[in-house]
Amino acid sequence: MEVQSKFVTLKNQIEGAPQESNFEIKETSLKQISNDEAQLIVKNLYVSIDPYQLNRMKSLSSTHSATKYANQVKLGQAIDAHGVGRVVVCGDERFKEGDLVVGHFGWEEYTLINTTTADGFFRKIESSEFPPSYYLGILGIKIDNWVRIALEGISGLTAYAGFFNVCKPKKGDFVFVSAASGSVGNIVGQYAKLFGCYVVGSAGSNDKVDLLKNKLGFDDAFNYKEETDFDSALKRFFPHGIDIYFDNVGGELLEAAIANMNMFGRIAVCGVISEYTNKRRSAPNMLDVIYKRITIQGFLLVDYLHLFQEFMSFTCDQLRNDKIQAIEDISMGLESIPSAFVGLFNGSNVGKKLVQLE
Amino acid sequence: MEVQSKFVTLKNQIEGAPQESNFEIKETSLKQISNDEAQLIVKNLYVSIDPYQLNRMKSLSSTHSATKYANQVKLGQAIDAHGVGRVVVCGDERFKEGDLVVGHFGWEEYTLINTTTADGFFRKIESSEFPPSYYLGILGIKIDNWVRIALEGISGLTAYAGFFNVCKPKKGDFVFVSAASGSVGNIVGQYAKLFGCYVVGSAGSNDKVDLLKNKLGFDDAFNYKEETDFDSALKRFFPHGIDIYFDNVGGELLEAAIANMNMFGRIAVCGVISEYTNKRRSAPNMLDVIYKRITIQGFLLVDYLHLFQEFMSFTCDQLRNDKIQAIEDISMGLESIPSAFVGLFNGSNVGKKLVQLE
């Protein structure tokens, strides 16, 4: 069987912020070669749109390129991305047509998978308790052997590992989360509240601030675009200082957070989105780092996969009891992928950004 | 009894690099008021000259000021500093005239101590096995209750705690030490070699490089003033990358170190001397910090005082067996204190900078 599949591709390597014109849509045909090859064709239902992908679309020489650590996106080819799909052509007896699978697929209508080589890069979703899209966000994800692939877009376990294992919270800690309405930030803030911390988030619009305070239970939140001086803003929201900073943005906000940290403060560096499109790097006051004995720790999910069962059990329970909310921002149709991606860097998304393909 | 005592004082708060003209020498008379007051007068033999003192000589508003954490040096008054001295007037039965004491005294000929309030800020040196000056450097120091006082100038235990407890070394680790001929750096490098690491140091002259390689046993060393590109320099000296960076300088070298760190690299931030006199702060690539899971940790000795016995026992053994060298740089006479201090920021000193007063 052969299917026609449209896919999003990169026209040129990106410098600075991405533009829709950096992308184009192409079409190809996918064909299952033989049953011996143990191939599947998956029709993608949802694909994930994540900031980390930008760093692989840059030239190798870019100082904000991640391509020295992972594969660079190739011009004209399909762009790999996490997705949830349905098996439509099945050449592997462990699956059957109609199975829901989550894995590392692509910004494309259909993905052809050689299950012998891709073993472990995807798995079947057995339960129908939660919407399939949750497996790209709040319930994402563990798939064995993803070490070689992108694990950065996996919101739920990233938030869990980053908050509980890197930040090492204590009840009553004052916690600051930047990009707090983003895919990881909103979950970190909700975990921190459940754990008994005081949580303030920053976001880029008044609607997002409203969401954080009124729907997600943050103690407070502010619109960073309305603040002229981040240092004063943090002093206002944290009169007793910050114990934990979960950093998704880098830049000036990291400097201001360090200036407002308490003794033995902990900073988990999860992302630096403000620096991905901008050359202005954070230049923190290292004298503060010394005198306040601050620890700044970069982390990647791949080192915390052993937490998967504990994460799933805890998070599913909270979802069942309505103690935690899944915040998703879903656009429709393959054609909307470039604008959805560009929007990440304008702060257009609220929560996990997905594109629904069917 | 009354003594005339000359002391060094600050004429104005310092901006940028210190100048000898920032200081002047004054004289006062010290008098033991009564035996009831339990006072001592100590004649200082050696006083310690340390970079951290600059940060207390700045205005409160300086971004490189430490005065928000500790006492600011007051204009016209004696400048406190670690010292070794001899008791010349004794109003406390726990001491006697002629006793050698080490403690937090000052850049002055004599220090008057109220032993009831200063209890624990100094102690008697009981052993004569090592030169008294060692207690300001390689064997410095634990004195109870120094929490409220400057502990930053205490080289030996700082190097020990910073290397073994903050850097968490493994045998075979590749270790980079900046300001490696400085008071702390030279000891860190020697500990790292004893522990079985590969150690490269940076320093500011060819004589210092020679000292590191030929006297202190560093595997390699380089003169940073002869390098135009720190990133390339570190690539040359660490073709397999850096596992541990013991940072005494901050600035550009910290950026280059982060660019050359290995996965799970650890950075102990002990000092940022390049930034004390310069507004150019380090702006590390946080994407490297994330992807390489680097930990950057500021530390102060005060949190590691429990290591004192283990540190002393280990270090005295190494000194006895000639496995570690005490590197001291001693100027003569109170009048040389301002130039000795200014010289710290020009890189004039080799090892622990002291001024001998008698």
From TrEMBL, chains A, B:
The keyword Oxidoreductase applies. Residues 16-355 form the Enoyl reductase (ER) domain. Keywords: Oxidoreductase. The keyword Oxidoreductase applies. GO terms for molecular function: oxidoreductase activity, acting on the CH-CH group of donors, NAD or NADP as acceptor. It comes from the Eukaryota. InterPro entries: ADH-like_C, ADH_N_2, ER, GroES-like_sf, MDR_fam, NAD(P)-bd_dom_sf. This is Enoyl reductase (ER) domain-containing protein. It comes from Stephania yunnanensis.
